[in-house]
Amino acid sequence: MVKIRTLAPLVTLALWCGAASALRRPLPQMVAVTRRAALSGGLSAVAAAAVARPASAGAAPAGEPVVSADELAYWRAKLPKAQYRILFGRGTEPAFSSPLVKEKRRGTFACAACGTSLFASSTKFDSGTGWPSFYDALDGVQPVSDNRAVWALIGSEVHCAKCKGHLGDLFMDGYLWQTPTALRYCIDGLALSFEPAPAAA
């Protein structure tokens, strides 16, 4: 099984090298193209062959935080099965399945397992990919790799710095959406909880 959202780099390159025609979109509108639409333009086979990686099962990537058997047992008993699969099974939820994709209120997105603050709502943007997307993170987010070249080439999984739960992926394709950091944190909604900001007095 392939994580479609990890195909960012080659899809991005292809977009600027002729995908505009394939998708019947004028080039100036490419900054708003979604990953789902890009793959529908016939690019998925080429990109998948080059940068596809397992969605969950199998060996964890180098640098993956180690979660002990006792910790896994604790979270398995505490979390709903779907959340456990995402956070501690390195799963991926279906695109557009999380209500947090459309969450626009002021507040903080936290880890659904341990409650660590992860993202400020001010950094959330609509990527059109079907997963909550952010252009910056708080200190509670830990990439598996700190090598920006890796982020640009294949992306990096990101985890909660406290409980080590898997959150999603980090890509350096944010310029497609003109984000101020050129980054895109593509996060599973089931890995998050949302804490609205207090109402103004």
Automatic annotation (TrEMBL):
Pfam families linked to this entry: SelR (PF01641)
PROSITE patterns: MSRB (PS51790), TAT (PS51318)
Biological processes per GO annotation: protein repair; response to oxidative stress
Signal peptide: 1-22
Source domain of life: Eukaryota
Record keywords: Oxidoreductase, Signal
Residue ranges of the TM segments: none
Domain MsrB, chain residue ranges per copy: 72-197
MF annotations from Gene Ontology: peptide-methionine (R)-S-oxide reductase activity
GO CC list: cytoplasm
Family stated for the protein in its record: Belongs to the MsrB Met sulfoxide reductase family.
Family matches, as PANTHER family: METHIONINE SULFOXIDE REDUCTASE, PEPTIDE-METHIONINE (R)-S-OXIDE REDUCTASE
Name of this chain's protein: MsrB domain-containing protein
Gene source species: Diacronema lutheri (Unicellular marine alga)
